[in-house]
């Protein structure tokens, strides 16, 4: 039953795979769909044959006579050659796709991405550093990878690409995103304590938005801290849950005039709103929850998502909400 | 002589713990491996249940969805689960338990060629195991069983102690392999030509070749890692100009052949079970025997398929993909020959036969997903995801562990001289087989969707499938508890086993159950092949 569903899905071409963000993803899925169908047929022959024989030749008495068949050379050749031909066919098909996957296009937009325990950092030619990887749609992008400490692996499931980031050398991958939107970037190579939290967003935006983003980001560095914080507050969509200019509750607590005051938590403890409390609440929203708000909090954790300087800017911004 | 008539057998010939600890009898050493490896399996299994429990739900807060204290504990548990199951259960499992006990019996020998080395190999495994468990109390290791550099150089845990432990356990593996090669060549009884040895012996022989040739590579690699940590020799550490990927090449140069150390003996067991319980000669004896050797030979040249995204060259990737495809052929040959063996047989659904059929079912799935992983661009997506986890569990657990269980139930009457309760053994199979599929099939889908392995926590869209998988792990646990009870009750209060309860044709069933100290009262003389069901 499961296998039948699997085959149906294979026919649909996407079978359990994440959405297809690139052309390479479609090519990989076609090959994978073919493999699924062939696998299903092979399993049907092997498992189906096994069940058929097991039922048909079930022991009827201890004195059953069985056939004495030692071998059959024609059959042996048949079931060696047919699998071999299939294997070589999928190997060749794989080679063709792999060739495209690994041939770096000329004139691609180059982005340096560095892994470190446990965050990714993207660097653009104009000096912009970002935790999110932001790329323009329908443009060849080459990611040049390295690592500051141990081996990580840059994995974008929707693009069907993955490459290890190895300390002491550069590796690379490329893609041409065809869909606007946000995609997961996971670390796929075990790297210790927060390996599973080492993820970021890959944002595919229009060329126009990309250029705008790049210019704005490059200017952010020279802004005063609180103004930088205000920008981050907007881009990170903090404003959709937290009011900053009045004490009304949106989804989360308002941040207006909170600095330096005491807040009561849902366990009855009182906490002073200072740098360390705000920092913790941003990085690990579940650590302390203000009385009257749901536990677990719907706020995403920003551990590994924000650089130290971004955090500092945010805190300076919140400090100034008077 | 005349043990059988006087009621003496290898179990009661001597008594007392000391007689076991100093025994040179391959059968007793096999039983000692049985007890200790099953204990390791229990520990590794509990670790697996902990991992699955942790993954039952997304951790939204420290209180919700979290079972283990933190990511570090999870990483430690997954490391011990992997290291114990690979180095202490699956690698020694079939050769050291069933191989030790039955290789000499199946070729009509009194013992293995070097009984003292045989005992020494058990002590090596014990010494390694004690050292490995000692890291619990020094600093628990968290590198994963693969010890990838440079993480294994940086981490504060007891990596040196653990790799020395694995080094010593590797010694055990080498000694067993060496012993089996010499035994097969020199101790076959009169008439037992190489083409009359049972396929289980062929499989052990092929495995032994890999053990002797590949394990030293692991030993050297681990020694280099230890030296890197202690002396900073700069071979793997990029900070000292070393190459961390070189470690992966060394490691997989052993560990890929080791995959076949784990599966080939299982394939041997399956040949024995299928012939016995379908009362039929094996289809394609030569094809199966040579495909074992073929797999053993090719297995040395496929290590790079673990490294398609490691930064190795594209040309290497393509070559390794090609050679990996070639390993698929002898594996397919085996599957089809086993299937053909069932044709026109007389199939009896005993517990061991159900395990053998379960093996074919699961190994078929493990095999075809292996081909998917061998196709480079598809592997780029699946690499280091749950798809790989599901694949190797289908092969290692669905394959090897099903064969171990089938083998235990098949040879149990010979080993202990007692019968076990067939119905309860079948129930253990039902739970393990169904539980296995419930646990691991969803992991293929998780992997396809992109969930990376070794993840303490995951994004919310993966939760449903993880839940199903965790429930499956409980079914497997129930199955193994039933199996344990079945075997313990069999040993304690089972009916006396006859000489040949299953009507099998191989030599071990021509001596009493349990066998006398010297295996056979008169040295057997063989005049025909091992599967003459006429």
Describe the structure concisely:
With 322 residues, chain A is an alpha+beta fold. Chain A is 38% helix and 19% strand.
CATH homologous superfamily label of chain B: Cytochrome c oxidase-like, subunit I domain
**Terminal Cα span of chain A:** 63 Å
Low-pLDDT stretches of chain A are none
- What is the overall silhouette of chain A? elongated
Task: Write down the CATH class of chain B.
Answer: Mainly Alpha
CATH class of the largest domain in chain A: Mainly Beta
> Can you identify the CATH superfamily of the largest domain in chain A?
Cupredoxins -  blue copper proteins
Q: Any idea of the CATH topology of the largest domain in chain A?
A: Immunoglobulin-like
| Mean of all residue-level pLDDT scores of chain A | 89
Structural class of chain B: mainly alpha
Strand content of chain B: under 5%
CATH architecture group name of chain B: Up-down Bundle
- Regions of chain B with pLDDT < 50 over 5+ consecutive residues? 1-5
Number of helices of chain B: 16
SSE topology string of chain A: HHHEEEEEEEEEEHHEEHH
Q: Examine the secondary-structure arrangement and name the CATH architecture of the largest domain in chain A.
A: Sandwich
């Amino acid at each position: 039953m499961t296998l039948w569903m699997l085959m149906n899905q294979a026919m649909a071409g996407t079978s359990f795979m994440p959405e297809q963000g690139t052309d390479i993803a479609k090519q990989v899925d076609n090959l994978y769909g073919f493999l699924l169908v062939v696998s299903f047929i092979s399993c049907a022959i092997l498992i189906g044959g096994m069940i058929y024989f097991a039922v048909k030749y079930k022991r009827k008495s201890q004195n059953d006579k069985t056939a004495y068949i030692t071998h059959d050379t024609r059959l042996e050749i048949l079931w060696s050659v047919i699998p071999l031909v299939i294997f070589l066919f999928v190997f060749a098909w794989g080679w063709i796709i792999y060739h495209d996957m690994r041939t770096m296009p000329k004139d691609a937009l180059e982005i340096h991405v560095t892994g470190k325990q446990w965050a990714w950092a993207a660097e653009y030619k104009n000096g912009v550093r970002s935790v999110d990887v932001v790329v323009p749609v329908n443009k060849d992008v080459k990611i040049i990878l390295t690592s500051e400490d141990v081996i990580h692996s840059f994995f974008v499931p929707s693009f069907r690409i993955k490459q290890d980031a190895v300390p002491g050398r550069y590796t690379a991958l490329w893609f041409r995103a065809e869909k606007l939107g946000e995609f997961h970037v996971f670390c796929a190579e075990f790297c210790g304590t927060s390996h599973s939290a080492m993820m970021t967003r890959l944002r595919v935006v229009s060329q126009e938005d990309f250029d705008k983003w790049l210019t704005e980001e490059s200017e952010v560095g020279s802004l005063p801290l609180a103004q930088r914080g205000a920008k981050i507050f907007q881009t990170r969509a903090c404003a959709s849950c937290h009011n900053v200019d009045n004490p009304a509750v949106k989804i989360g607590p308002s941040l207006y005039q909170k600095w330096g005051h005491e807040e009561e938590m849902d366990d009855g403890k009182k906490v002073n709103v200072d740098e360390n409390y705000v920092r913790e609440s941003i990085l690990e929203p579940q650590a302390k929850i203000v009385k009257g708000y749901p536990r677990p909090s719907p706020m995403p954790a920003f551990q590994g998502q924000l650089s130290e300087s971004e955090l500092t800017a945010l805190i300076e911004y919140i400090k100034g909400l008077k | 002589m005349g043990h059988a008539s006087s009621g003496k057998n290898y179990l009661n010939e001597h008594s007392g713990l000391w007689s076991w600890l100093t025994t040179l009898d391959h059968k007793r050493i096999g039983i000692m491996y049985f007890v200790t490896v099953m204990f390791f399996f229990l520990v590794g299994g509990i670790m697996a249940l902990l991992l699955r429990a942790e993954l039952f739900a997304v951790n939204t807060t420290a209180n919700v969805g979290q079972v283990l204290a933190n990511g570090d504990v999870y990483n430690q548990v997954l490391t011990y689960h992997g290291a114990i199951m690979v180095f202490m259960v699956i690698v020694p499992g079939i050769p050291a338990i069933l191989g030790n006990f039955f290789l000499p019996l199946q070729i009509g020998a009194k013992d293995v060629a070097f009984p003292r080395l045989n005992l020494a190999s058990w002590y090596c495994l014990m010494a390694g195991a004690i050292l490995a468990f000692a890291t619990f109390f020094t600093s628990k290791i968290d590198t994963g069983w693969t010890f990838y550099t440079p993480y294994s150089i940086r981490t504060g845990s007891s990596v040196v102690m653990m790799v020395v432990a694995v080094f010593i356990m590797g010694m055990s593996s080498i000694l067993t392999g060496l012993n089996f090669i010499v035994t097969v060549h020199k101790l076959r009884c009169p008439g037992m030509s190489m083409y009359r040895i049972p396929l289980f012996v062929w499989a052990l022989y092929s495995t032994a070749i890999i053990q002797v040739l590949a394990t030293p590579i692991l030993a050297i690699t681990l020694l280099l890692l230890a030296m890197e940590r202690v002396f900073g020799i700069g071979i793997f550490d990029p900070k000292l100009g070393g190459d961390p990927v070189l470690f992966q090449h060394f490691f997989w140069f052993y560990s890929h052949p080791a995959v076949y150390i784990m599966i080939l003996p299982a394939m041997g067991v399956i040949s024995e079970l299928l012939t016995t319980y379908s009362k039929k000669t094996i289809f394609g004896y030569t094809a199966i025997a040579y495909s074992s050797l073929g797999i053993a030979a090719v297995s040395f040249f496929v290590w790079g398929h673990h490294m398609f995204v490691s930064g190795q060259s594209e040309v290497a990737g393509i070559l390794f993909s090609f050679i990996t495809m070639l390993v698929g052929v002898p594996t397919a040959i085996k599957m089809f020959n086993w299937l053909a063996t069932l044709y026109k047989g007389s199939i009896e659904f005993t517990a061991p036969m159900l395990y053998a059929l379960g093996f074919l079912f699961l190994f078929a799935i493990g095999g075809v997903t292996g081909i998917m992983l061998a196709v480079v661009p598809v592997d780029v997506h699946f690499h280091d995801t749950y798809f790989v986890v599901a694949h190797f569990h289908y092969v290692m657990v669905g394959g090897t562990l099903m064969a171990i269980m089938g083998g235990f139930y098949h040879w149990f009457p010979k080993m202990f001289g007692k019968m076990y309760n067939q119905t309860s053994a079948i129930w253990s199979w039902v739970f393990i087989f169904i539980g296995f599929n419930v646990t691991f099939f969803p992991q293929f889908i998780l992997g396809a969707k992109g969930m990376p392995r070794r993840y303490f926590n995951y994004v919310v869209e993966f939760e449903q499938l993880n839940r199903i998988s965790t429930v499956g792990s409980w079914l497997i646990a129930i199955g193994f508890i039933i199996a344990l009870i079945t075997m313990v009750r069999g040993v304690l209060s089972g009916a006396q086993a006859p000489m040949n309860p299953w009507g099998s044709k191989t030599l071990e069933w021509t001596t009493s159950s349990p066998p006398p100290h010297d295996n056979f009262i008169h040295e057997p003389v063989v005049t025909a092949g091992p599967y003459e069901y006429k």
